[in-house]
Amino acid sequence: MMQEQLVKFVATPDKGEVSAILMRPEGAMHLLVLGHGASTSMRHATMQRIAEVLAEQRIATFRYNFPYSENGTARNSNATCVEAIRNAVKAAHETAPDLTLLAGGHSFGGRMTTTAQSEKPLEEVKGLVLFSFPLHLAGRPDVKRAEHLAKIDIPMLFLSGSRDELAAIDLLKQTIEGLRKLATLHLLDTANHSYKILKKTRASTEDVFVEMARSCREWINEKGL
User: Fold this and answer.
1) For the chain, is the Cβ count within 10 Å smaller at the N or the C terminus?
2) Distance separating alpha carbons of residues 137 and 212, to the nearest angstrom
3) What is the per-residue pLDDT across 72-102, written as a single tens digit (0 to 9) for each?
4) Alpha-carbon distance 45 to 75, whole Å?
């Protein structure tokens, strides 16, 4: 079983310390700093599974809590989450300074990471990996949440299900195309926002999480990160 190292770092001066988990497989050369979804935490089953399959591809992960999930309070402001992301990236680099840094997250965690990068580049981060990027609210197709992506100048990988209720395929493809060569979209056949699939109609027999990890490794290699 992959060994996990518990780490503490200061998310923001006023919110104090939060927890993080470093999962570093043997032979890792990259470290992905992972933010969790809006109503979950770093220990959610989705986050755990993502970390495990990435480890199989020799990609280390540093998944962390936002202050609100650490303390069980109402969700923090976007500004607080962005500051927490910057400090998570710093803590990850200090914990494993020999690994190439990537950043991203699942749903809300990914959107806040792109927001942080668009406002000011995250230190040492070479690329962004976005699991189920929440393009819009369920049932309310829009692209306003993607407007800030145009300010990002490092490679981005979007791993989204073809049935994602928070990312209509036509709008997501339109968004990716608008970002030119910096953005790559990998569509996961029949998967929804939480990566639940339709077994009867899914063309591939590959586990959806394994597919994501493999795609992430191929993207890293292709971009020379």
Assistant:
1) N
2) 23
3) 999 999 999 999 999 999 999 999 999 999 9
4) 20
Q: What is the 3-state secondary structure (H, E, C) of the chain?
A: CCCEEEEEEEEECCCEEEEEEEECCCCCCEEEEEECCCCCCCCCHHHHHHHHHHHHCCEEEEEECCHHHHHCCCCCCHHHHHHHHHHHHHHHHHHCCCCEEEEEEECHHHHHHHHHHHHCCCCCEEEEEEECCCCCECCECCCHHHHHHHHCCCCEEEEEECCCCCCCHHHHHHHHHHCHHHEEEEEECCCCCCCCCCCCCCCCCCCHHHHHHHHHHHHHHHHCC
Query: Beta-carbon neighbour count of residue 48 at 10 Å?
Result: 16
| Token pair 């020379």: residue | 224
d(CA 120, CA 122) in angstroms, rounded, equals: 6
Question: What is the CA angle 102-106-107, rounded to 5?
Answer: 125
List Cα–Cα distances, 222 to 169, 182, 201, in angstroms: 24, 12, 30
- Would you state the pLDDT for residue 180? 87
Both structure tokens of 60: 């280390």
User: 4-223 architecture in CATH?
Assistant: 3-Layer(aba) Sandwich (3.40)
Q: Which two tokens stand for residue 46?
A: 């989705």
